[in-house]
Design a protein that fits this description.
The complex is a heterodimer of chains A (about 350) and B (about 280). Chain A contains two helices and 29 strands. With about 350 residues, chain A is mainly β. In chain A, the strands form seven sheets. A seven-stranded antiparallel β-sheet of chain A has the order 3-22-27-24-15-20-17, with no helix packed on it. In chain A, strands 9-12-7-16-21-14 form a six-stranded antiparallel β-sheet, with no helix packed on it. Chain B has about 280 residues and is mainly β. Classes of the chains: A mainly beta (about 350), B mainly beta (about 280). At the A-B interface, β5, β6, β8 and β9 of A face β21 and β24 of B. β8 of chain A pairs antiparallel with β21 of chain B.
Chain lengths: ~350, ~280
């Protein structure tokens, strides 16, 4: 028996592909998990929405020996480990409860959490500046930017990634050189900032948009592309006009076309994720964005606070402005709690990409 | 034969050996008296053999000579020393956090002395002498690595990484000629070397981010990012290898990795910022 989604060979009788989590047989009729108690009428709408976000996951047929990771959605056999084998999230119920406003924090990853990809594995260690340690099988390889390499076995073969494979782009104005490491052997990566290491498993056919400079490493079956963000504003100082890109001029898109892949990102501070319903919007600081599903649309939003009228303070406050990024569902969005200042946020904006604005 | 074991030997078997520093502890102990590592928690070792520096419980007391040391805090930990009379610790002066008024400070005269200039600044080692309390921290996210040195041990440490060291340890520095160009663009690089004479001592290092240690077998080697190197036993050799990447297109692209060859311990840090000396 083979998985219809990823082609992995399966042992007879399993309900889900042990490799990619795809359903092999028809899902069971009813959710055997305890249904959440009906929320009292007074509960905020956001919480109900948050619960509905978790609801599809609650249909995981735990009675059949499988469970679903609340963070990445992977389905796997119950009891095999304390962490999701795809993304390393701790599988404790407490960590999967969203905040009242619907954000789900990246679950506390157990130290030494182990992830499987192909015949290789990845272990994430450390708390302040976590490192990702990979045990590459001979047929597996990963790519990364060379400055994140921490240590490796002498027998690991490294090379630059072929330019013909679409690596011609400029990465935020700089030439992008990717390094590739081929198994067998161990290799480890870390970035020089305190923060979180996010393991994003990509199911086959799944794509994800990532803000520039978040990338740490990816398995070689993950394709890499980029697109222009179309989010910019122009500031005029005297006679000079300068263009700023609060989410960067380009955004990375990672895509696992045929087989599941693993993408490692590094974000500052804490990481929060939420799923937006179709048409649902939220404003985030542009530099806080980590990744989004390609189905999520983004645009600029300018907000002007009310400072009263006809006073010197109001005159000064004209320059005070918040630059936001509107994200519109459906899809997942993730943000980080440590992010850079937006350049020239209070400058004299003369032109922008398509933007909405709000005067209070 | 089990029966041949004398009661005294049996009692000694009931001691717990610390997995981190190999010190022997009373069977009831929950933290190692020499390095503060928890004894009742399993060591965390990754698949490829790296051991995490044990999280020293807040307020664990570590003893050396007639003094005690307490390590407190999580993200930027501090080390608080209660110096016994006659005991002293030495350190770089900028890591001091607070002290009792009456703890005298002096400056160490290094043999071979002050020729070690860092960014134009002389390298000064200060000494605090007991009795009294003094505390240290370095202003960066990281971990304090408590390394008890038993007699005969020699430890090489990345420069500026040591937070403090007990007085009965011999301190010197070695210049790593082979690394000079690669690491610091011709400025040269020194490594601190700590040697114990006949008394056990204590070295506390500060590593940026998280710290991992691994024991290399004789002849076993591993390639480490030079900036991540934190400490090693003197028996571990270090030699820089230039990894050439790619072909003609990127003729100039490459990276240097430090090849560490056993036998001995090697410690690395997961974040490597090079702070300029102010």
């Amino acid at each position: 028996m083979f998985c219809t989604r990823c082609g992995a060979k399966l042992t007879a009788g399993v309900n889900f592909c042990t490799f990619c989590g795809a359903k092999v047989v028809a899902p069971p009729i009813a959710s055997p998990m305890a249904p959440p108690t009906p929320p009292p009428a007074a509960i905020p709408v956001s919480t109900q929405r948050a619960q509905s976000m978790v609801a599809p996951i609650a249909q995981a047929p735990s009675a059949h020996g499988s469970q679903t990771c609340q963070w990445c959605g992977a389905i796997f056999d119950t009891g095999i480990s304390a962490n999701c084998p795809k993304c390393g999230a701790a599988l404790v119920a407490r960590s999967s409860v969203p905040s009242l406003s619907g954000w789900l924090e990246l679950p506390p990853r157990k130290d030494m959490a182990k992830l499987q990809f192909g015949n290789s594995s990845c272990q994430i260690e450390g708390v302040y500046v976590p490192i990702a340690e990979m045990n590459l099988a001979p047929e597996d390889s990963v790519y990364f930017t060379h400055h994140v390499l921490l240590w490796m076995d002498p027998q690991v073969r490294i090379s630059t990634m072929s330019m013909r494979g679409g690596w011609k782009r400029l990465f935020a104005g700089m030439p992008l050189i990717m390094t590739q490491a081929q198994g067998p052997g161990h290799i480890a990566f870390s970035k020089d900032e305190p923060g979180e290491l996010i393991a994003l498993p990509l199911h086959s056919g799944q794509a994800i948009d990532v803000r520039e400079h978040m990338f740490l490493a990816a398995t070689s079956n993950v394709q890499y592309d980029w697109f222009t963000t179309h989010v910019w504003y122009q500031i005029q100082n005297d006679k000079e006009t300068e263009t700023f890109y609060p989410v960067g001029p380009l955004m990375d898109r990672f895509f696992a076309p045929t087989s599941p892949g693993l993408l490692l990102l590094h974000a500052g501070g804490s990481v929060l994720v939420r799923t937006l319903a179709p048409g649902e919007t939220i404003l985030v600081k542009p530099t806080a964005l980590i990744f989004k599903d390609p189905s999520v649309q983004m645009q600029l939003h300018l907000e002007h606070p009310n400072a009263g009228i006809f006073t010197w303070g109001a005159w000064q406050a004209r320059a005070v402005r918040s630059i936001w990024l509107t994200l519109m569902g459906p899809g997942r969005v993730a943000i980080q709690s440590v992010f850079e200042r937006i350049e020239q946020e209070n400058g004299n904006i003369v032109n922008t990409s398509y933007a909405t604005s709000q005067y209070w | 034969m089990i029966n041949d074991v004398t009661p005294a030997q049996a009692a000694s078997f009931e001691r717990i050996q610390c997995q981190w520093c190999q010190g022997m502890n009373d069977k009831a102990a929950t933290s190692c008296s020499a390095c503060g590592a928890p004894l009742d928690i399993r060591n965390v070792i990754s698949d490829s053999g790296w051991r995490e520096v044990p999280r020293i419980r807040d307020m664990t007391e570590i003893r050396f000579s007639a003094s005690t040391c307490q390590v407190e805090g999580e993200i930027v930990p501090t080390a608080e020393i209660n110096l016994g009379a006659g005991d002293s610790v030495f350190f770089e002066h900028h890591v001091m956090l607070w002290k009792d008024v009456n703890v005298p400070l002096s400056v160490m005269s290094l043999s071979g002395g002050f020729k070690r200039a860092l960014a134009g600044m002389p390298f000064l080692i200060s000494i605090a002498t007991g009795p009294g309390r003094i505390a240290f921290s370095r202003d960066a996210t990281g971990e304090l690595v408590v390394l008890p040195l038993h007699p005969g041990m020699e430890l090489d440490v990345r420069e500026h990484a040591f937070l403090l060291c007990s007085h009965n340890i011999n301190y010197s520095f070695v210049r790593i000629k082979g690394l000079a160009n690669v690491l610091f663009g011709g400025q040269g690089m020194y490594m601190d070397r700590f040697v114990t004479s006949n008394m056990p001592g204590l070295v506390i290092l500060h590593g940026y981010g998280n710290v991992f240690e691994r024991r290399l077998a004789a002849g076993e080697s591993i390639l480490v990012e030079p900036g991540a190197f934190l400490y090693k036993d003197a028996s571990v050799t270090m030699q820089v290898e230039f990894q050439k990447l790619g072909s003609g297109l990127f003729g100039a692209t490459g990276m240097s990795m430090a090849k560490m060859t056993g036998p001995g311990r090697i410690g690395i840090q997961s974040m490597y910022v090079h702070h300029k000396t102010e």
